[in-house]
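Handout, page 2. Input:
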Amino acid sequence: MYPFKIGVMLDSFRLPIDQALVKAAEVGGQGLQVYATYGEMAPENLDTAARREFLSNVKDNGLVISALCGDLGKGFTDPALNPGLIEKSKRILDLAVELETNVVTTHIGRVPDDPADEVYKIMQAACHELAEYADSLKAHFAIETGPEPAARLRTFLDTLGSRGVAVNYDPANLTMCVDDDAVKGVYELKDYIVHTHAKDGMRGTRPPYVEVPLGTGDVKWDGYLKALYEIGYKGFLTIERECGETPEKDIAMAVSFLKGKIA
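Output:
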């Protein structure tokens, strides 16, 4: 019914990378996303041979890379930190291109309500630089939804004049963190969505946010998938399971759930 592909977040298995690759294939994933901000997958820790070996292992398991996760955990709200964070983000994008994907997902911090806010301008300047670099590689830094309503993020992105900074759409984060309509948000951000996370959660706007197995929360999956299809999205639904005691079981259930929805 729908032309989407199913991916899995490799780190969600909480296993060494080589074992997680096998599990990703075993549960029925077609692609994967992996953190590239620390450890063995950080750009500074992967020489040319190691990059080729990792990509070869991905392909040997019948997978492709849907995106790298480049969230450095600080956003881009501090002008003193931004130069270093931007340079590291660029190196992660370079790595992504070498690994045959053109998407790096990230968090930029919460976009303020007021465009005249100094933090808004600081984030805007950082994203202009990131977008320019991504455009040079025909790639995208994809902001994960959730810190602010979709409409506010759309207004911010429109000021950049580029899809070099785009959107990684996470319907659960919108549902859990800002009580936003995740279906309506697809249409609001339709020009920018280049990657998605398949995650579920319970509605609410205050911590602790409640993430739950796919299909058991407040995300309206039928409407959400229909909306993605109607805007022409054909990319990955990448399963992310950030909590729970049985990640492999939850991920396998999520793959089965999505296959039932998109078949």
